[in-house]
Structure prediction request, 558 residues.
Amino acid sequence: MEKKWWKESVVYQIYPRSFKDSNGDGIGDLNGITEKMDYLRELGINVIWLSPVYQSPNTDNGYDISDYQAIMEEFGTMEDFDRMLQSAHDHGIRLVMDLVVNHTSDEHPWFVESRKSKDNPYRDYYIWREGRDGKEPNNWGSCFSGSAWKYDAATDMYYLHLFAEKQPDLNWDNPKVRQEVFHMMDWWCKKGIDGFRMDVISMISKDPALPDGPVNGSGYGDYGPYAVNGPHVHEYLQEMNREVLSKYDLMTVGECSGVTIEEAKKYANQDGRELNMVFQFEHMDLDGGETFKWNDRKINLKELKQVLSKWQTELAGTAWNSLFWDNHDQPRIVSRLGDDSTREYREASAKMLALCLHMMQGTPYVYQGEELGMTNVPFETLEDFRDIESINAYHELTESGQVSPEDMMRFLRYKSRDNARTPMQWDDSENAGFTEGTPWIMVNPNYKEINAKEQLARPDSVFHFYQKLIRLRKEREIIPYGEYELLLPEDPDLYVYTRALGEHKLLVICNFRKEEKEFTLPEGFDPGMGEILIGNYPDRELGETMTLKAYEALAILW
Ligand code: GLC
Ligand code: CA
Prediction:
């Protein structure tokens, strides 16, 4: 397998609004990130993925962009950006920007022009259709509730928005749109950035017939068959690659919800014609149901192992995986797959989950606060939420009577994206040291117990465990490059797998339960010869049979 720097890297995702506020307005900003560069170097990560910092009216916290070449005022200036980029590079950290080009904001000048008249030169930058019998052009529902079409009286037509009304979809079939996007990307590359994380990039090509989709639980049609991995998506990404990506040494990752293995092998093929890797969501969608993500079901471990193992083995040698539990769209993993009920269980299970993921093949992503074992948030009322997806879903599902208000509040507390978006917990001072003003969203009240300052000072903290995992990936080739094999697929409580490279084998054992579990080493693994690379209980000794403690995890090298 070909070696690449981005295969040996660990990425840290920053959600700038919630990372560090430097000027007391309650909103995280670029200078705040620059202040924390030493912290990131201490953790040992090599790459930052920065969620959008471009000019935006903030309907979807920056994922609705009105100027791709300007910085959001609340976050600072272009000079602040340049200083942050320089500081990252001085710290040996590369910077990957979020690229949100499936849609723009409706306040983007292209859309402002586009909606003016049918013959405006920007009309075809977006997807406009006549109504059907005085109603929407087709039955598609939007990701953020309601129809995916918005009527615009100026021209008596509808425009498509797969997300919020204020996020009209760009028309990628128009070569001018592609040229504008490529030109803008090139501008950022020339500035010296190191790559792109491409927002919902699997959705940029739509079947031009825009057929009705199969009706789902929401009462709307599913656009998936006609807009996800659509007819020209690979062609457009190859064009982007020729025009921009191939000219620089970049890391590229496509956010590809709804991606299959077969499709991923095209997006992230090692032939380098499209992207380096994709985010797939099959493991995160395992607790979905009739009302989509809105429920409080627990992910079944056997299913989780099966899905993750499939991605590990089937991409091997052809494409490259990205590894993640958390991001700005997911609730906190320690509350979802781990155990945040006591301090002891929280720390043990946060470390176990980290070890389980970081010993796999692929590029790991750490989402801000995950390295502290930050948890979900005890939101009390709907007013505590800021996220458009959560608020719209609450209204849609409770008003239609599909979910009771009490249940929905419980589901929001368990699954809302806002769980990941409360301020980073830096220390035990007011507002967790995030801001001296009033934070834009509540701080998790557990910051006195869970914060970076306390963990930096304590050698056995979750922070130091992540630091060690990140260091090991750089020291041991078997971690990025070894071959993966799942053991004990039927075990409902343990996740056990091996990695193999040359003469060496790495055995990874994770107990996903608080109950103790017996584990016997597979044949051929001599306990006297194995070296524990990392584990979450300090006094673990290797034996042919071991009693694993609550959420115990270890990686042993032979
Ligand atoms: C992606 C982003 C998410 C955003 C959506 C629309 O899924 O990660 O935060 O709301 O795209 O841009
Ligand atoms: Ca600020």
Observations:
- The chain has a mean pLDDT of 97.
- Residues 21-23, 25, 27, 29 surround calcium ion (ligand 2) (CB under 6 Å).
- DSSP finds 16 helices and 20 strands in the chain.
